[in-house]
């Protein structure tokens, strides 16, 4: 197999592994209403607060046990193969615990929670919710560590080649995973029961684990070839390189963390990541409700309007990635995406029309923004951070991103509660005015605009290469 074919095969393998993670991540979202239904109606009787706690538990280990940070250190210290197997294994284990909670732990047992952590934890929790959350937290830890591992794998194989196209395709596969979960999970649950969706999700993760095992053979082969090349280059010298070990670039020293933390470019990227993703991901959690309340569409139509976001990104992310590879202008792509998101937020806060067509156009704007920024953001990180520190750098970025992803929905949820009024039309009793929540999202997007503008300006003076094409050879 020639080099080019090998690296694209690797891309397919690891993108599918990652997409499997995204499938499980959203497997419960479309069936949450059924989960909240009573036992007699075939649900599990979860309260909205319990569901919110379960959904937020994805980030619990990543944030409170600093697992993302340690994951990055393990990646840089122990290498891709070890970390990838560990992370995909933990994802699978978490998913199995999550599934087992829904089938084996009674939803009738409740416990009183001794501390509520500033209102983030409900005062009473079903033991089933607690066990499911433990599983989902473990899954989240494995999933995000798989994320940094996959980013490092793609960088390792594609640096100097089609790096942004490759990362764009990987993100497109991830979005396909999200879209598939949203589309198929309700069908599986309707046909075979709620827990069947989770079982299907766990099955999908087992498939991902097997694919990662296959990838390790490619990885070992790559390292051996690199070692042979190096040995060739230093032929005659007394230095010997162990062909079994990973490449020298992968070795990590603890003081590298200080190097990363002292890099202002890194902090700009981390700030852009948390502001952009905190503005778009939590928005997507509230978007269906916003469609119903602001544009008066039915729940199913609202779901389809919001689904236009991930479906649109499947095509656009690799397209923008290819443009970045060939023509550069990464900082401009970041700025363009952030500005577009800001405009979309404002057009939803102060709608010019209340038609479904208007809402669809805005969702397409959001989809374009959600393609522009990720396609330029992730391949830009290796331009500001050396390969030896890349795993740690990605993990710190994910860590900062997770803080926003955990806090912003809680914040917006509180604002939504305060802007919910009982309507008099006798049909839907509650109405939410989304003006203020959307203004808050717009303010967070404005921070993303300011950060990407700073990145563009500093690239002009420091020449970090964000505006340069990624491909140095075909
Ligand atoms: C590519 C990018 N990834 C992330 O934002 C990661 N934090 C997600 C990690 C894996 C899934 N939990 C994206 O999805 O845009």
Automatic annotation (TrEMBL):
Membrane-spanning parts: 7-25, 51-75, 82-109, 129-151, 163-184, 196-218, 265-284, 304-324, 331-350, 356-378, 390-414, 434-457
Subcellular location: Lysosome membrane
Its membrane topology: Multi-pass membrane protein
Tagged with keyword Acyltransferase: no
InterPro entries (alphabetical): MFS (IPR011701), MFS_dom (IPR020846), MFS_trans_sf (IPR036259), MFSD1 (IPR052187)
Catalytic activity: L-arginyl-glycine(out) = L-arginyl-glycine(in); L-lysyl-L-lysine(out) = L-lysyl-L-lysine(in); L-histidyl-glycine(out) = L-histidyl-glycine(in); L-histidyl-L-alpha-amino acid(out) = L-histidyl-L-alpha-amino acid(in)
Annotated ranges, domain Major facilitator superfamily (MFS) profile: 196-474
Keyword Nucleotidyltransferase: no
Keywords: Lysosome, Membrane, Transmembrane, Transmembrane helix, Transport
Similarity-based family: Belongs to the major facilitator superfamily.
Task of the protein: Lysosomal dipeptide uniporter that selectively exports lysine, arginine or histidine-containing dipeptides with a net positive charge from the lysosome lumen into the cytosol. Could play a role in a specific type of protein O-glycosylation indirectly regulating macrophages migration and tissue invasion. Also essential for liver homeostasis.
Complexes and interactors: Homodimer. Interacts with lysosomal protein GLMP (via lumenal domain); the interaction starts while both proteins are still in the endoplasmic reticulum and is required for stabilization of MFSD1 in lysosomes but has no direct effect on its targeting to lysosomes or transporter activity.
PANTHER family per UniProt: MAJOR FACILITATOR SUPERFAMILY DOMAIN-CONTAINING PROTEIN 1
Protein name stated in the entry: Lysosomal dipeptide transporter MFSD1
